[in-house]
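Supplementary Methods, section 5.1.

A reviewer requested that the exact input to the structure prediction be made available. We therefore reproduce it here, unchanged from the version used in the analyses.
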Amino acid sequence: MEPKELSESATSYINGRWQSQSDYFDVKARRNQTSFMRLRDLMLWCSWLTPIAIFCQTLPWKVFQSHYFSLAPLLLSTIAVGTYQWEEAHNYGAQWAKFRLVAERLKGHKELFLHRSGMYGDPKLDEEQALQRFVEYCEGLIEGTDVNYFVLMIDPLRRNQT
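The structure derived from this sequence is encoded token-by-token as follows.
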């Protein structure tokens, strides 16, 4: 089924508010994914290299017996624990999932609206009623995200302080 011609108000909403919010959630999802993956990679590498650095100190070669090399396990394990704690404090993984979920729901409902499927497919709905339903859904999703942000980010910080 081909999308119907959109009214001026539908085009205005989709090209304005909907597009800016969709872009926002996409960008936030990508940034949080990048931060999460970088921290995880660093944590994994440092965690893997720590026991190797400790083992190397038992080898008889002079290079591994230096005072500088003896700091390697300490630095690697500190970085591993630090990256884990940093991610726990900033919740990049959870935020990545949350922003990606909202972005995909916004995109999915736009397609449903454009093709008059799902909750927008009722033949009794005219263009304005379908648009109203679409706007209400999208705005509710965006508003609900703000509430979820405070539950996800602010409440854990408050709990950790008490």
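The chain has a mean pLDDT of 88. These observations are discussed further in the main text.
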